[in-house]
Amino acid sequence: NRGEIAVRVFRACRDLGIETVAVYSDADRTALHVTMADYAVRLGPAPSAESYLSIPRILEAAKKTGAALVHPGYGFLAESADFARACSDAELTFVGPSPSAIEAMGAKTTSRALMQWAGVPVVPGTTTPARDAGELAEFAREAGYPILIKATAGGGGKGMRRVDSQEDLSSGFARASAEAQASFGDGSVYAEKLLLQPRHVEVQVVGDRHGHRVAVGERECSIQRRHQKVVEECPSPAVGPELRRRLLSAAVAAAETVGYDSCGTVEFLLAPDGSFYFLEMNTRLQVEHPVTEMVWGVDLAAEMIRIALGESLSFTADDLAPRGHAIECRLYAEDATRGFTPSPGVVSRLRMPEGPGVRNDVGIEAGSAVPIDYDPMLGKLVVAGADRDEVIGRLSRALDEYEIAGVETTLPLFRALVRDPEFRAAAFHTQWLDEWIGGRSLGPPEAAVEEAFLAAGCISIDGGTPARARQDRGSRWRASARVEALRPPHHPSRGFRP
Amino acid sequence: NRGEIAVRVFRACRDLGIETVAVYSDADRTALHVTMADYAVRLGPAPSAESYLSIPRILEAAKKTGAALVHPGYGFLAESADFARACSDAELTFVGPSPSAIEAMGAKTTSRALMQWAGVPVVPGTTTPARDAGELAEFAREAGYPILIKATAGGGGKGMRRVDSQEDLSSGFARASAEAQASFGDGSVYAEKLLLQPRHVEVQVVGDRHGHRVAVGERECSIQRRHQKVVEECPSPAVGPELRRRLLSAAVAAAETVGYDSCGTVEFLLAPDGSFYFLEMNTRLQVEHPVTEMVWGVDLAAEMIRIALGESLSFTADDLAPRGHAIECRLYAEDATRGFTPSPGVVSRLRMPEGPGVRNDVGIEAGSAVPIDYDPMLGKLVVAGADRDEVIGRLSRALDEYEIAGVETTLPLFRALVRDPEFRAAAFHTQWLDEWIGGRSLGPPEAAVEEAFLAAGCISIDGGTPARARQDRGSRWRASARVEALRPPHHPSRGFRP
Amino acid sequence: MNVRRRFVWRRSGGRAELTVESRDGRSVTFKTEGDEIVADLAELPDGRRSVILPSGRQLTGRAATGPDGRAEAWIGARRIDVELADPLLDLAAESAHAAGGAAEIRAQIPGRVVEVRVAPGDHVAAGATLLVLEAMKMQNEIRADSAGLVARVDCSPGQAVETGAVLVRIESEPVA
Amino acid sequence: MNVRRRFVWRRSGGRAELTVESRDGRSVTFKTEGDEIVADLAELPDGRRSVILPSGRQLTGRAATGPDGRAEAWIGARRIDVELADPLLDLAAESAHAAGGAAEIRAQIPGRVVEVRVAPGDHVAAGATLLVLEAMKMQNEIRADSAGLVARVDCSPGQAVETGAVLVRIESEPVA
Fold it and tell me: Is the model more confident about A151 or about A304?
């Protein structure tokens, strides 16, 4: 979550005529977000603690370049009240909400209490950070399994574990707490009742520093793998006008309670019976913000900057004219054909789809290194159209045009998804994708005869390992190493049929 | 006009789940529109007459691959009634209007007469193809100079000449007629009174084979170089609701008179006093169709195919919800820094802009050859946003991201235009750009000291002519050859300061 | 250039011989199981190749072989699964197949070993978790692909491992 | 690698000496007209280089020199005009400048000569149309950049010409 969002924010700055400053760790010296910036300052070595999580070094960088605004992006310090406070102490304008709002919503247990007070329905769960599994056992007994253990400081599926029975509770607690510690520097977790087959529906809210607050429609984010969103769309196929009205006013009420004055997202769980529960509020720009931008015709990244500069919202609820539909696919450097194992490396080829309805928000270019040190998101493919069917038609075309070599990605997952009848019918929920992936092999299709001809022709004429293909061999060797880890080497003929 | 529109149409086909067949001349065997097609058939050698203009060879190609639909794109046979007729004779569905409509609108003199009959105002001009300059002299005398000589079969500024006085009439006639012959295989021309400082405003019309006809807003196309559109936008900054109503109903009336049943464009000249005159109707998809698609939320290329398949329009006038603004820049392989001289060659590098509001419709990729044989359009950059100011902000960002090496392009023109106060104020007319270009040097800016440092650093460390830069040298030599043609070689120090 | 090459094309259906012949590297004759076609094979500037078959069918892609004779092939923007073995390597592979042996579980990516769940001498079932490897902030469970006896454990908790490093050795046991 | 190089930087303001020094090809010292800075110069995978100056200013671009010592330089996505001459070539250029001589009007692009407007012995003014060349379906008028005497015409109507082909030679006349 360094490159892609930095590039997005820099584009918003350029559009507004604002100069840009990139910060980078040694792993990112030649990354796209650095080479497109007007200024760039080194923070430190690759480990986040010494670079992207180091508040003093970031403030130093701003001071050195005379920056006036600091945009936290998402991930890292995006939801750190301390960072927001440190910025204002250093007389820098933090592009985000007030520290108090971040604090109130940041501690998930506090925010749940706040929402109950504000009359926004919440999922049954514990209200204080748990120090050991025992504290959760009691709640689990009365609420009943399955329960979900979540990081108090969390987000993005990190430090989250489903627990189905008493036996697994302590191991689940340990694993979740460990991940939370690793990801957020805070190992405290809490528990929630796990609703079965809910949808994840969230509302985009925008507030300014003059008391205006507007809800900019909802997003459907039920397509998740291990609690990590992978496909998002706007609007939600499950939300009609009446439900939308109730969702949006609940979201505005949530924003009001903390005097929210930036772009933020209120997440809800939507039960099959149409009832919904407050999940959490993300006090930052969301990865999936582009689907809202394309359908509602707003520029959330630019709006967020204008708000930080003290401007009033550029629109009221009545000005907004939503039109059509949009779907986003998150491209991760994870090998969808082999259990989504991380796939760091060098992007040897990158060919992005273009044409009507297509928007590419990526943080890489051909030659970019994808380091092991950070989140594996490469970027997003966002497609818009007149209605969901047109979007799916354009999306499958765009996915067929999308070429990334050198690192394995989640493209094979999306290519299979867009052809799936249940996906096309929008008949899914937050656990749907994990079940769907379950049995499936997302491996490459076996060559048809004319495809074998082309391959044989290339090899025959260019020779065994043509210079031009050499750039790919790195990835190929990595791939075969992976294969060996997954199966004994004495089945060579199965090597390329996972 | 082979690659870019073919790619656009293929994308529309993919979106609709239709297989694609490319036709190509020997100059285009490895062009993008061929390598992205499901099927491809060679037409013949590079010269258009033996390839893209050969009706029998195109029909043969359709027969060979069992194609059912034939899309003419634009340019070449796009407005040939004979071709449309030949297709239906061969039991192929021509994706375009009926031959009779093409014929009626194709001969500009006939169409003018038709419009007069239909009560649509037309510019004073001759009503029959002229065989010699003498025929035009008479009209010029009564209408008064300046007059405009235009190809009867014309379009796109080819075979068009402004004549300011009696003396220049015969040479202008000769040149226009020669170009008309070369471009359209028909040397006949006619004359029109030249309105001073008019705007070029055109209306997109869509009709189906069930009698429905809808006008999908207007486009502003006044930014022209030598009568060739280079920048188009939607909506026109010069058109208010009342004028729009009158323009749209005039356009629908024009379409009605010929029973128009496809996508087409009715072009008008808009005088400073708000009066407008029918110019011509283009019976095809227009190069600038994307600005309408982005503002009006329709897919004209796909609609055109559905109409050809006999479907009813997917929308009525009331369904349409225009939103925001869009601007298109046409990228030509012409050297804007040296009098827009054609610049064929090989595209050694291509880096397209991405992100919010950006749409790339291009027919090239890195490595593509830009042959001397055809129209020099490489593609289009289209940018949309909430209003004209947001679009211009995004457009200048996108232009700064756009890198094309190996061939010279019109990018420098656009980068200068978007910063021009008159352009930003939309204070222009059809002759404005030629005057604007007049005095200006669009040459590269002189290096600032830190830019000189970077250049010197690259040269010092990579050596005099690093391998990686070698790919550009071709273009560089071409560039310097060009310089020599424009000035004596004994001012070496001026070599790179045109 | 004069090209003539034979491949063993291995697919789920079994093996087939596939030959490629060309005098000029552009007009190419392909043969497999009786089919014989002559196609136009053009090289693209970026090294891909476009083939146009007699039917007009057009495919663009690229392919290269590793030393083991297997191909890495892309058609359009996606990888496809095609095994074009050199007839000699093919035989070698066959004999290796017959031999059987021990499986080395290797690191798929650089990372840090969080937990080791097995010890030498353990019998593991297919799918059993052997160890937990952390990379890119996610904890990944490395599982046994087939049942066997843990012969050696070559890593320990907290250890950083590189791609391809051997983590655990499992001997396949004779089926009872 | 140890690098030390001197350039003559020619700009509208005049000439300036510019030197580049580096021990490792990464940390680079730049000097011109008294200014001296040490910057971080990193190579990108596609051959571009990114420089970060002490102020934090970041520029990405590429540059190469032709045999005439002039640079083709790109900053970001656009070409910039920078002349970095080798001190020796610089002198040569100067003397050439002094010499003056005849101008060869060359074809800028391959095309077909449509019309020739001048003949040997003609006196032409700067900007006078010499001939009309058709390329890419457009007719382009080739004009004289400076006044002179037409010494030779090396092409004729209908003739196809290649890039760089000499079309007309013009001798600059002594100013009266």
Answer: A304
- Residue D53 CA to residue D59 CA, distance in Å, equals 9
Active site residues of A: 284
Q: How confident is the model at residue A205 (pLDDT cuts 50, 70, 90)?
A: very high
Nearest to D50 among A21, A34, A42 (CB): A34
Tokens of A150: 């979540």
Q: What is the DSSP string of B99-158?
A: HHHHHHHHSHHHHHHHHHHHT--B--B-SS-BSSHHHHHHHHHHH-S-EEEEETT-BTTB
d(C-alpha D64, C-alpha A222), whole Å: 52
What mean pLDDT is predicted for residues B367-372?
Answer: 92
The partner residue sitting opposite B183, judged by closest CB among D22, D74, D137, is: D137
ipTM confidence score: 0.81
Cα dist from B313 to A319, B70, B210, B214, whole Å: 29, 20, 9, 9
Q: Do chains A and C touch (3 or more CB pairs under 8 A)?
A: yes
Question: Out of A3-12, A272-281, B410-419, C148-157, which region has the weakest mean confidence (pLDDT)?
Answer: C148-157
Give the model confidence (pLDDT) of D53-83 as tens digits.
Answer: 999 999 999 998 765 556 789 999 999 988 8
- C-beta atoms of C44 and B40 within 8 A: no
Q: Any idea what DSSP says for residue A374?
A: S
Q: Please check whether residue A181 is in contact with residue A151, taking contact to mean a CB–CB distance below 8 angstroms.
A: no
- Burial of C30 from C-beta contacts in 10 A (0-12 / 13-18 / 19+): buried
Catalytic sites of B, residue numbers: 284
To test the contact with chain A by mutation, choose from B292, B354, B359, B364 the residue with the greatest count of A C-beta atoms within 10 A, namely B354
Q: Six-digit token pair at D117?
A: 């407007």
Give the pairing type, strands B345-346 and B369-370.
antiparallel
Nearest to A276 by CA among A303, A246, A305, A255: A246
Q: Which residues of B touch C46 (CB under 8 A)?
A: 365-367
* β-sheet bridge partners, residue C141: C132
Contact flag for C and D (3+ C-beta pairs < 8 Å) = no
Token couple for A198: 């809910």
Q: Name the residue in chain C with its Cα closest to that of B367.
A: C45
Q: Are D142 and D105 in contact (CB under 8 A)?
A: yes
Q: Strand pairing of B69-70 and B93-94?
A: parallel
User: What is the count of residue pairs from B and D with beta carbons less than 8 Å apart?
Assistant: 234
Helix segments in A133-240, DSSP class H: 133-143, 166-184
DSSP state of A483: H
- The residue in chain B having the minimum alpha-carbon distance to the alpha carbon of residue D127 is B486
Contact B366 C45 (CB under 8 A): yes
Residues of A in contact with B17 (CB under 8 A): 393
CB contact (8 A) between residue A341 and residue C64: no
Cβ-based contacts of C25 with chain A (< 8 Å): 461
Phi-psi region of C5 (alpha: psi -120 to 50; beta: other; left: phi over 0): beta
Nearest CB partner across the interface for B352, out of A15, A354, A359: A354
Neighbours of B442 (CB within 10 A): 20
Burial category of A214 from C-beta neighbours within 10 Å (exposed 0-12, middle 13-18, buried 19 and up): buried
**Chains with 3 or more CB pairs closer than 8 angstroms to D?**
A, B
Q: Which residues of chain D have pLDDT under 50?
A: 92-93, 95-100, 175-176
**Beta strands A93-94 and A69-70: pairing type?**
parallel
pLDDT band at A490 (very low <50, low <70, confident <90, very high): very low
D84 membership: H or E segment, kind and range: strand D83-85
CB B132 within 8 A of CB B189: no
Pairwise CB contact (< 8 Å): B488 & D101: yes
Nearest-angstrom CA–CA distance, A281 and A251: 9
Comparing CB atoms, the residue among A297, A356, A365 nearest residue B299 is A356
